[in-house]
Structure formats: structure tokens, C-alpha cells
Amino acid sequence: MKWVRVGALLLVVGLLFGAAAWMRPFGRPSLAEMDAYFIQKAQAEAGANNVVTSVVFDYRGFDTLGEATVLFCAVVGVALVLRRVLR
Amino acid sequence: MTVVVRTVARIIAPMILAFGGYVIMHGHLTPGGGFQGGAVAASALALLAISFGFGRWKGIKAPLSFLEDLGALAFVALGFLGIGYTFFRNVLAASGGLFGAPVPPGPNPGLLETGGTLPLMNWAVGLKVIAGLGSVVLLLGLFGGEDDR
Fold first, then answer.
1. Mean pLDDT of A19-29
2. Which residues of chain B lie closer than 8 angstroms to A52, CB-CB?
């Protein structure tokens, strides 16, 4: 039973090392159309030199709304747990 | 806290607040934005609260609550501004109006009055993060009890 576990662990580690060996070189993703679109069009479409901000607040604005909701829920949770000190 | 800590906090807190405001205001030009700048400014609030004692900051709860509501409502309202096309469409960008100056193409330092709704959304989210993190720090400090060593 012990050797089965060791064998399974070695198999997983071997798979991870194999995946690391098969990985693409750093900075060269296989699918880059979306990146190229954002980098080329962000200045004209969103009017922002900071492409990250144009993605966060323009292209993926709905996601940022969810993030803001998560923050709001966290604050509400803290206020709810510690509500005794509010009085 | 001791007089050394209070003096250093008194000197350094305005600088932290100004840097947070800078990070929020230039969110569409330089690295950073509403979340990051808001966290920086909230750290100034935490520094002041810890060094001067939490007790005297009880009165700031109502303004923080107002800022949180203002930020959230402004963010959603700015998202609804582009509802004619899609939710969160940047209708103010390159329109010639508020923050609507055309952006010079290519690598350049950038103009502050560009970005359309992005700077406004940065400010909305920044106020929200300042108020949210500030009230969390304040609540945790008040829960811990008074400690005016």
C-alpha cells in the first residue's frame, strides 16, 4: 500500500515536470489575438494610456462591478460581526 | 502611542494621502487605479487611527458610510451611462467633453483629461475603497478596545 502511494506521487511529480518541460517559452502565449487587440485599440477606443485600466474599467467593467460588490460585502460582513461596538 | 510615533505619523500621513490621491487620479495613465490608490489612502487612515488612538475617530463613521454609498452609486451610474450601446460602454472617451480629449497614439506620457469614464470610475472606486477599508480598520480597532499607550 505504501509503495502504491509513493508510485502515485512519483507519477504526479513526473507529469508536472513533463508539463513544465512542454511549456511554451515565457512571454510567448499560444493565443495572443486578444492581447494584441487590447494593446492596439485601447488608446483609440478607451482613451487610456494604461491598458490595464482600460481592461479593468472599460472592456471588463462588469467584472469590476462584481469586485466592488465583493468589497462591499466584506465591509458589511465585518460591520455585522462587530456591530456591538457601533453602539 | 508615543510622541515619536505621533510626530512621524503627523508628518507622513498627508504624504501618504497625497500619493493615494495621485495613484487614483492618474489611474488611466500610470500603473495603479482606484483600488490601489484607495488602499494606499486607507493605510494613511489606519496609521492615524493607530497612532492617535481609535476612540477619537468615532465621529468619522458617518462620512465613511456616505463615501461608500457615493462611490458605489457613482460607479453603477457611470456604468449605466453607456446603456444605449452596452452596459459599461465608455461613451465619454474621445467625445470632446469631460475627460474626452483625443489620445495621442503610440508611447507617450499621456494627458490627464483623456480616458472618458475611466478617471471618474477610478475616483468612484477609490472613494469606495477608502471608505470600505477605513471603516474595516476602524471597526476592528474599536472592537479591540481603547489602547492609548
1. 83
2. 31, 33
